[in-house]
Predict the structure.
Amino acid sequence: MDGKTLGERVARARVDLDLTQEHLANRVGIERTALGRIEKGERKVSAVELVELAAALGVPLAWFVRDPLPAVVSRRTD
């Protein structure tokens, strides 16, 4: 999984909980600017940070790293 996708998932979970970047960063023990860079896909996340993010956001660790489900495409045949 690339950093951008991971960052988007972190941001989505944070917004769903109505948390600011500052609040989540404090829970995880990182700087707000570091969290912002993670959410933009500009900073890599260590395994420890990923575990802390999952705990702070109340989501399973696998939620961050699972592949998205493929889109279902329906085609009509004549």
About this structure: The radius of gyration is 15 Å.
